[in-house]
From TrEMBL:
It comes from Lentibacillus kapialis. Belongs to the ABC transporter superfamily. This is ABC transporter domain-containing protein. Pfam families: ABC_tran. It comes from the Bacteria. Residues 4-237 form the ABC transporter domain. Its main location: membrane. It is found in: Cell membrane. Keywords: ATP-binding, Cell membrane, Membrane, Nucleotide-binding, Translocase, Transport. It is a peripheral membrane protein. InterPro entries: AAA+_ATPase, ABC_transporter-like_ATP-bd, ABC_transpr_CbiO/EcfA_su, ECF_ABC_transporter_ATP-bd, P-loop_NTPase. The keyword Transmembrane helix does not apply. GO terms for molecular function: ATP binding; ATP hydrolysis activity; ATPase-coupled transmembrane transporter activity; cobalt ion transmembrane transporter activity.
Length: 275
C-alpha cells in the first residue's frame, strides 16, 4: 500500500498532444529510482502525474493507495515533494530562510517544529551561509540546493528531483550523493529525472527508461546501460566507464569506476616468479 502506482496512465495535453501512453509503474517506499530518456520522451509529464499537477486522462495514479483523481495538488503535496528542474521556477521569497519556512508557516506548524525542520534541511544541503540572501542572488548551483532544502523541510515520504546535477560541480554532486544516503536511511523514496548517467549509475538502484511517451525498460542500472536496444531507443549514453571498458576490450558489463580499476589492476599484477 505504501507505494506510488501508475496503472495504464495516459496523459494527453489540452492541445491533444499525447505525452504519456499507458504507463505502468510501482515504486515502493525507500526506493531510489531514476527516470531517463530522450528529450520529449515524457519524463516530466510522468512525474507531474505523480505529484498530482497532471491527472491521468486515462488510467489511474495511486499514492499510498489514494487515487490522485480524488485529491487536490495541495493534498498530494503532503506525500510528494517536487524539486523543479529550474530553481527560478520555484523560488519567490525575499530570503532563503523565508523560502524554506514559507510552506511550513502556511501549514501553521508550531514554531519549534518549523525551527527543527529548517535546521535539518539547511544542514543537509549545506546552505548555512546563504540564509539571509535573496534566493535570486544566490549562485545557481546553491540556488538548486535552496529549492531542495524547501522540499526536504516538508518531510514528505516521496521526493522528486528533476535534473539535480544540472550546474553542479563535483562537490555539489558529492553533496547530493550524501543526501541520497541520508534519505534512504530515513526510508524516503527518491525519484530523479536525469541526463547525467554517471550520477544515475552511481546513485540509483533502479532505472526506468522512457522513449516516445512510453516506459520501455525498468531494471537495475547495469542491465539498462548494457542493453544496446534500450540505450538506442531512449537515446541515453552508457556511463563513460562502461564505454572505456568496452574500448579496452574488457568483456564484463562494467559501469562503475571501481570495477574497471579492479579489472585493470588484476590483469596488470606483476608475475611473482620474475626475479
Ligand atoms: N503544456 C504542454 N502542452 C502541450 N504539450 C506539452 C506540454 N508540456 C510538454 N509537452 C510535450 O509533451 C512531450 C513530453 O514532454 P516532457 O516535458 O514530459 O518530456 P521530457 O522527457 O521531460 O523532456 P526533457 O528531457 O526535455 O525535459 C513533449 O513533446 C513536449 O513538447
Amino acid at each position: 500500500m505504501k507505494s506510488i502506482v501508475l496503472k495504464d496512465a495516459t496523459f494527453i495535453y489540452p492541445n491533444d498532444h499525447i505525452a504519456n501512453e499507458e504507463l505502468n509503474l510501482k515504486i515502493n517506499r525507500g526506493e531510489r529510482v531514476a527516470i531517463v530518456g530522450q528529450n520529449g520522451a515524457g519524463k516530466t509529464t510522468a512525474v507531474k502525474l505523480i505529484n498530482g499537477l497532471n491527472k491521468p486522462t486515462h488510467g489511474d495514479v495511486f499514492i499510498d493507495g489514494k487515487n490522485t483523481k480524488d485529491k487536490t495538488v495541495a493534498q498530494i503535496s503532503a506525500y510528494v515533494g517536487y524539486v523543479f528542474q529550474n530553481p527560478d521556477d520555484q523560488v519567490f521569497n525575499n530570503s532563503v530562510e523565508d523560502e524554506i519556512e514559507y510552506t511550513l508557516r502556511y501549514l501553521k506548524l508550531p514554531s519549534e517544529e518549523i525551527e527543527r525542520r529548517v535546521k535539518r534541511a539547511v544542514e543537509l544541503t549545506g546552505i548555512e551561509d546563504f540564509l539571509d540572501m535573496k534566493p535570486f542572488d544566490v549562485p545557481f548551483a546553491i540556488r538548486k540546493f535552496v529549492t531542495i532544502a524547501v522540499i526536504l523541510a516538508l518531510e514528505t515520504p516521496y521526493l522528486i528531483l528533476d535534473e539535480p546535477t544540472a550546474g553542479q560541480d563535483l562537490k555539489g554532486i558529492n553533496k547530493l550523493s550524501k543526501l541520497l544516503d541520508v534519505l534512504e536511511e530515513e526510508e524516503k523514496t527518491v525519484i530523479t529525472i536525469s541526463h547525467d548517467m554517471e550520477f544515475v549509475a552511481d546513485n540509483f538502484t533502479r532505472v526506468v527508461a522512457m522513449a516516445n511517451k512510453k516506459i520501455i525498460a525498468d531494471d537495475i542500472p547495469r542491465n539498462i546501460f548494457w542493453n544496446e536496444s534500450v540505450v538506442a531507443a531512449s537515446k541515453i549514453k552508457k556511463p563513460e566507464i562502461g564505454e572505456l571498458a568496452k574500448e579496452v576490450g574488457i568483456e564484463e558489463k562494467i559501469i562503475y569506476r571501481d570495477e574497471l580499476v579492479n579489472k585493470i589492476s588484476c590483469s596488470s599484477k606483476p608475475h611473482t616468479n620474475i626475479k
